[in-house]
Design goal:
10 helices, 0% strand, transmembrane helix, LeuE-type, cell membrane
């Protein structure tokens, strides 16, 4: 019974974290709207792989590793923040001059491997995810939780992320939303670019 309660706690906390708009949400929406549903789902696959890695690292105690080697966390934080700021600047530049939109879209998406890579890097670039997961396990899981329970919790987190971001990619790839983007693309890119820069700066400063 305690195991079910722990898994319910993990699921509740992770649902809240997943549905809260952040870089993963923004990049999934951007790829789905500007490219295709398939490209959006490739981006989701990259996000899911990074989620699996961060969840596994959180369960194994990466927070302790960061305490032992704080330079590692600092490096990941600065690199991740710089990457998000770079994405944001690319979007802003593309929104100002539509002649560079195609090059911007090459950065923010495309198909197959590149869309997968974009989703993976966007998620793995945020080491705060590992700290959040470590805190989640500390709060929701019993002390010295067995490996089987940890694996179930990780599988639950991956499943929640997969379902949520797949739904996002599916919905935002609809023709109606794509047509709206065609009309308002400049402003949407400016808002998205500003959000990426905001997330990047916040990651670097915290």
């Amino acid at each position: 019974m305690d195991e079910y309660a722990a898994l319910l706690s993990v699921a509740t906390l992770w649902v809240v974290a997943a549905v809260t708009p952040g870089p993963n949400f923004l990049v999934t929406v951007r790829v789905a709207v500007t490219q295709s549903r398939v490209a959006g789902l490739h981006t989701v696959a990259g996000i899911i792989l990074a989620t699996l890695l961060w969840a596994s690292a959180g369960f194994l105690g990466i927070h302790s590793l960061f305490n032992v080697a704080p330079w590692m966390y600092l490096f990941l934080k600065l690199a991740g923040g710089a990457y998000l700021i770079w994405l944001g600047l690319k979007l802003l530049w593309g929104s100002v001059d539509r002649t560079v939109t195609s090059s911007t879209q090459d950065v923010i998406s495309t198909h197959g491997w590149r869309a997968f890579r974009l989703g993976f890097i966007t998620n793995i670039a945020n080491p705060k995810t590992a700290l959040f997961v470590a805190g989640l396990f500390a709060v929701a899981m019993p002390p010295e939780a067995p490996a089987a329970l940890g694996l179930m919790a990780i599988a639950l987190m991956v499943t929640i992320s997969l379902v949520w971001y797949s739904v996002v990619a599916w919905l935002f790839a609809s023709r109606r939303i794509s047509r709206a983007y065609a009309r308002l693309g400049h402003w949407i890119d400016r808002v998205a670019g500003g959000c990426f820069i905001f997330f990047g700066v916040r990651l670097v400063r915290e």
